Amino acid sequence: MAAELRRQHCYSVNVPRETIIRATARGNAAPGRAETQDKIVELLRDVVRGFRRQHVQLAVGEQFPFPIYGLSLAAVREISERPGITVNELARLTGLPKSRVSVLMTRLAAQRIVRKDGDEHDSRLVRLRITPQGRQCVADWTAASQQAIGALLQPLGDDELDIIARGLAALQRAFRRAQEQGTAGHTGSPPPC
After folding, report:
1. Secondary structure of 132-169 as H, E, C letters
2. What pLDDT band is residue 27 in, cutting at 50, 70 and 90?
3. Which residues is 3 bridged to in the sheet?
4. CA 20 to 30 Å from 39, out of 56, 65, 88, 133?
5. DSSP state, 85?
6. What's the gap between Cα 166 and its chain centre?
7. Where does the pLDDT of residue 14 fall: very low under 50, low under 70, confident under 90, or very high at 90 and above?
8. Measured between alpha carbons, how far is residue 29 from residues 134, 143, 155 in Å?
9. Spatial contact of 50 and 35, defined as CB atoms under 8 Å apart
């Protein structure tokens, strides 16, 4: 199955061989189920890459000239959802090194997208908050992304849309369960992106 998936996706996805081997090793999963899980992982990788490419196209296109995208946008969204988050907490959530998050926050603060405030109880801590300009940037990205995704989904039939919605809802529930149990990302397998 891994060789077949690699052959199918070798032109559109740059996935290291060892990643597919690890994704294929499913332990106790029945053979049919393991193949289905592998296929889902590969499809998720393709979809995530598609979203990344779409964001890059939106960012460089004259139609949507936004000051941030990619990792910056992901960080700003986290700050928006968690006002007062620290650089350490943001690094842990994003999986980026603390030094990279710190440099990114300095750049975003210079762009007036993020505000860095001192902690009232511990002068060593810096609390991150989104500015009105940052909030507008996230809103603009959300609207542009929804429009682009809407255009992708438009040609699909109602049955296909229902299947996608149910599948994504099930995947979202699985992520939430894993986070509640503290097992998200601790399976030994790489994430789907």
Report:
1. HHHHHHHHHHHHHHHHHHHHHHCCCCHHHHHHHHHHHH
2. low
3. none
4. 56
5. E
6. 20
7. very low
8. 45, 40, 35
9. no
pLDDT in tens, 48-60: 888 778 777 776 6
Single pTM value for the model: 0.62
Q: Which amino acid is at 136?
A: Q
Domain ranges of the chain: 2-65+156-181, 71-135
* Residues 127 and 85: beta-carbon distance below 8 Å: yes
Query: Distance between CA 162 and CA 6 in Å, rounded?
Result: 29
CATH number for 71-135: choose from 1.10.10.200, 1.10.287.990, 1.10.357.140, 1.10.10.10: 1.10.10.10
Please tell me the distance from the alpha carbon of residue 176 to that of residue 154, in angstroms, as a whole number.
29
C-alpha–C-alpha distance, residues 34 and 83, integer Å: 40
Q: How far apart are CA 161 and CA 88, in angstroms?
A: 39
Distance CA 27, CA 37 (A): 12
d(CA 95, CA 92): 5
The HSE-up count of residue 21 (CA atoms within 13 Å, CB side) is 3
Split at pLDDT 50, 70, 90, the class of 173 is very high
**Alpha-carbon gap, residue 75 to 182, rounded angstroms:** 22
For residue 70 the two structure tokens come to 């990619």
Residue 165's nearest CA partner among 141, 182, 185, 149 is: 149
